[in-house]
Amino acid sequence: MSKSLRTTTDRFTSLPDDVAHKVVSSLSLEDVSRLSVVSRRCRQLCISMPSLNVDVRPYLQDATKRTRLMNYVERLFSLRRGVSTHRLCIGWFLDSSVNDKGGGEEEYRILSWLHNAVTCNVKWLVLYLRLKRGSAFSLPPCLIHSTSLESLTACVSINSILEFPSYSTIELSSLKTLDLWGVRIDESFGNWVSTCCKFLRSLYLKQIKETESIAINSSSITKLCITSMDYKLCHLQVSAWILEKMSLWWEFDSANNRTLQLSVPMLRMFVWKGNILRLPLTENLAALKSSASILFRSASTLTSQNLIRFYCDFRNLNHPIPNLFDKHSQVSYITL
Amino acid sequence: MSSSSTTTTTTRLLMLKASDGVTFEVEEAVATKLGAINNMVEEEGSEDLICLPNVNGKFLGMVLEWCKKHANNNTNSDKGNDEVNKWWDKEFVMDLDQNTLYHLLMAADYLSGTELVDLLTEKVASMIRGKKVEEIRETFKIKSDFLPGQEEEIRKKNSWAFE
């Protein structure tokens, strides 16, 4: 509270740092840049804000401004030397870069911001990128080496690929939430999760690309969401001792050679969307605990000749069982 | 403006005492929307009188008014509620003068009313957004305290934001 006693008596700069930082963090960098010229205290607030928001959207048509925004971000990072960055949010459209060939330079700059953030002990990182059709963006390995990062959300536009770095570290990660869209992972991903991510609670792998096989062994995750729509995923194996909620959207053209293995003794909610023909499930799901519930988001995919039985106990459900099974489907459920 | 408890009979009532001695009788469910009070209730358990020496009665009253609206609107859970809350929040901050906004924000921060702090900091941000340097200075009555020549230099470095 002592800060309110300083000589400046105005109603903005006399706010305590954490409150004033909240204000500054919700401004665009252009506003921040202007605010930093107002007074010394304002400038200090702008330089020391713990959360940075880089958003290219207002400058999509303006190449000069876009470059100057990038320069400003770099200037901020250099002025902030030593200030920890709790949160960095980057929204960038690499597909529409007008001021260089192919967005290579902009991509390089984004990578350097990510490095910078990791050096400044970033805890929250949100990355939204629009890429050219068919192109890929590789997340830098420093992200999985970071020991401070607790939440990572990375998303690329449809028709492009987010490449997750290969596992090459024994550094223990602090990640609690990992949310990846359009991601391509290699087989080392499962190793990394089981070896390094001891605190990971929520794992979201959405729109997985060009990945044939996923194996997840974790003793910490409680929420898992996997969606695969490119027909490439063949094998999915999940062993998670305390997993409570899982949702799976798995599309494929032919069920040949597809396997799904679940070892999830504490699972309480399983939401399923997509093609589930001929998957060897009966056995696995029979292990569900008594309060488990299985929900289908699209019952139409269940009209198969294959009888799949779901063993689960509906006694503990508060809601009446929704009419999920259409009359042509041979899917049945029984109460244990 | 102590709250009446005519509608509900089952919830526990808390007495909140402001720095100027003004007291407010509030339902527990309303007061615990404030993190600081929630902690006190959990820690001290049976104590029904809570003294808040850092908050003036006028602003405590306003904070509690906000809490009451939000606690009420949370109980009946239909989809229109978000809209109602948003509309009400807009009304709440619309005509706040700077002095009230400042003290309210300090009170909300002290009481750990996170959502209210978010609402009020957003209001402050809206007073800065899109404005020129001189306009910001005028809005908040801030005096430039840069050394001679320093402001021009900083202005030059931030020139991208002035076009």
UniProtKB/TrEMBL annotation, chain A:
It holds the Pfam family LRR_At5g56370. SUPFAM superfamilies: F-box domain, L domain-like. PANTHER family: OS06G0556300 PROTEIN, OS11G0201299 PROTEIN. Residues 9-45 form the F-box domain. This is F-box domain containing protein. Gene3D superfamilies: 1.20.1280.50, Ribonuclease Inhibitor. It comes from the Eukaryota. InterPro entries: F-box-like_dom_sf, F-box_dom, F-box_SCFL_complex_component, LRR_dom_sf, LRR_FXL15/At3g58940/PEG3-like. It comes from Trema orientale.
UniProtKB/TrEMBL annotation, chain B:
Residues 115-161 form the SKP1 component dimerisation domain. One of its GO terms (biological process) is protein ubiquitination. InterPro entries: SKP1, SKP1-like, SKP1-like_dim_sf, SKP1/BTB/POZ_sf, Skp1_comp_dimer, Skp1_comp_POZ. Gene3D superfamilies: Potassium Channel Kv1.1, Chain A. SMART domains: Skp1 (SM00512). One of its GO terms (molecular function) is kinase activity. The keyword Kinase applies. The keyword Transferase applies. Involved in ubiquitination and subsequent proteasomal degradation of target proteins. Together with CUL1, RBX1 and a F-box protein, it forms a SCF E3 ubiquitin ligase complex. The functional specificity of this complex depends on the type of F-box protein. In the SCF complex, it serves as an adapter that links the F-box protein to CUL1. This is SKP1-like protein. It comes from Trema orientale.
